[in-house]
Structure formats: structure tokens, C-alpha cells
Specification:
single chain, mainly alpha, 4 helices
């Protein structure tokens, strides 16, 4: 698999991890039954960790973590806005834009691999 394809898959895994983390928070708010609520939170977190570990196989830990955080932050905020009618301030949108720009900068950066000279 080409390096670019591997990196692209890594970002897909990291975004999936962030979305699953947000789904865990959303399911905790949506359901009143404790069994359903905790069951979905556990399932979403297990899937989130699996996606995150897969993203670490293709990306640096910095790129995977920041992408995961950004996807979680953005999807949680937008879910609050659209599903729960929470208000989001101009600061939130400015912060979201800053995070997105940071993730784009990191995604374009290259991380040099260490080569051991044995």
C-alpha cells in the first residue's frame, strides 16, 4: 500500500475515533434507560479505541491524537447545536476554525522516521 494511501486511512481511522467518542457523549444525553445509556457509552468507547489504535499504525501519535480530538470537539459541538439546541458562541467557532487549521497544518507536515545505524 502506498504511503499516501496509508496516511489517508490513518486520518479516516482518527476521524472515526473522534466521531465515536462524540457518539458516546451523545448517547449518554439521549437515553434515559441506564442500561442502554451505559451500554452504548461502553460500545462507542471500545470502537473509538479500536479506531484510534488503527490510526496510530498509519500516523504519528501527534497527528492521530490531534485529528481525533478535532473530530470529537467539532462533532460534539455541532451535535449540541443541532440535537440539543445548545448555543455556540463566536469564540467556539473561532476555536473550531483554529483547531481545524492546526489539523490541516499537521496533516501536511511530514514526520521523519528514525533510521538506526546498526
Amino acid at each position: 500500500m502506498a504511503d499516501a494511501q496509508l496516511k489517508q486511512r490513518g486520518y479516516i481511522w482518527a476521524i472515526s475515533a473522534g466521531l465515536n467518542a462524540a457518539l458516546a457523549a451523545i448517547s449518554a444525553k439521549f437515553f434515559s434507560s441506564l442500561v442502554i445509556k451505559y451500554g452504548l457509552v461502553v460500545i462507542c468507547n471500545v470502537v473509538m479505541w479500536a479506531c484510534y489504535v488503527n490510526s496510530l499504525r498509519a500516523l504519528s501519535s501527534l497527528q492521530a491524537t490531534v485529528t481525533n480530538f478535532a473530530a470529537n470537539f467539532l462533532s460534539s459541538g455541532l451535535a449540541g447545536l443541532f440535537l440539543f439546541q445548545e448555543s455556540l458562541s463566536f469564540r467556539w467557532f473561532a476555536g473550531a476554525l483554529s483547531i481545524t487549521i492546526g489539523v490541516l497544518i499537521l496533516s501536511k507536515s511530514s514526520v521523519d522516521k528514525k533510521v538506526s545505524s546498526d
